Amino acid sequence: MKSQYQNIVNTPRQQPQKYQRSFSQIFVNEENTFQQKGLGLLVAATISATYFLAMPYIGKEYIWPRFLELDDYLQWPKWKMYFVISMIFTLTFIPFANFVYYLIYHFELPFFEQYKVTATPWPWQENKEEWNKLLTKAFKLYFFNYYIVVPIGYFYDVYDSGFDPKFRFDLESFPTTTEIFSQVCIMMLVEDFSFYFIHWFMHNRYIYPYVHKRHHEFRVNVACCFNYFHPIDLFLEGMLPTAIGHAILGKRMHYYTYFCWYIFRVLESMDGHSGYEFPWSPFRLIPFSGSSTYHDFHHSNNIGNFCSFFTFWDTVFGTNSTFYAYQDRLKKEKALQENKTPGGGHSIQQQTGDVKSSKID
Ligand SMILES: [Zn+2]
Ligand SMILES: [Zn+2]
């Protein structure tokens, strides 16, 4: 499968081009990103506010009383309840979220397709046979990972906690909006920091071919590839960074907050892999956040852009310089075309589909 960026860079070993952005450029970029979203920003803000206001209310009034009733009825130890409920949630929520994205891809509605990150056709449009092979592999790996690796991970967590899960479970100390929001922010910062370094390490030339390469078999991003990982990768890049924040917070975290964080993490990752740059994405409200375009560049080029939530570690270590050099090149080409073409130029999306003219070397 040819990538739109393939003639720019195509090996994990290639060094990023030196391209320094000044402090002011970084802030101008950030401002432009927000401006481009227009009214989408309002929708994103509404979704975010609704999530953090509704989740504590629904949880306290409807979900947690039922959870405690079930707990009373079953009389299981807390670790067993934690293990079983976490597994049931993981095995239902992720397939459900994948199904929603499947519907979006399946119907190819112009309303969604206009936000496609690149002009490259979807992989199933380009080569149906290859796509079916990849999908079959993805399904097999999914079942192995989520029915064997994930239960082992949860059980290890239970064992490590001395069969006393480090969560609050009661209704009296049910978390408020402020607590859920602040703890999700902490989890996000910790996840991003650990994910960045683990991901960077996974691109080491001696490790990459044996582990992380599997995730990069998807060169055009599609939501389901967010959980297409080698089992070691799933543990190191998926489960570990997601859980480290909780290890720090311990029993200051309610079990319900963990679900709020888990939903947030999974949906952000799916959004980042979706191949769509939806202006209403609540995750793009996060200051200095990555984006679907940002992570798509990582998959297409196999170079830089290692972060999950934020871009600042990439900026500090210069691992997003090739991406920004490419973005600047596109902007300059767009401006040139607009000057040359009477009556206007072409969209960025059209241009990214024609990389021969956008080569960085
Ligand atoms: Zn990678
Ligand atoms: Zn990825």
From TrEMBL:
GO MF term list: iron ion binding; oxidoreductase activity
Entry keyword set: Membrane, Transmembrane, Transmembrane helix
Region Disordered, residue ranges: 335-361
Annotated Gene Ontology cellular component terms: membrane
Keyword S-adenosyl-L-methionine annotated: no
GO biological process: lipid biosynthetic process
Domain Fatty acid hydroxylase: residue ranges: 185-319
Transmembrane region(s): 39-59, 79-104, 138-156, 180-198
Name listed for the protein in its UniProt record: Sterol desaturase family protein
Organism from which the protein derives: Stylonychia lemnae
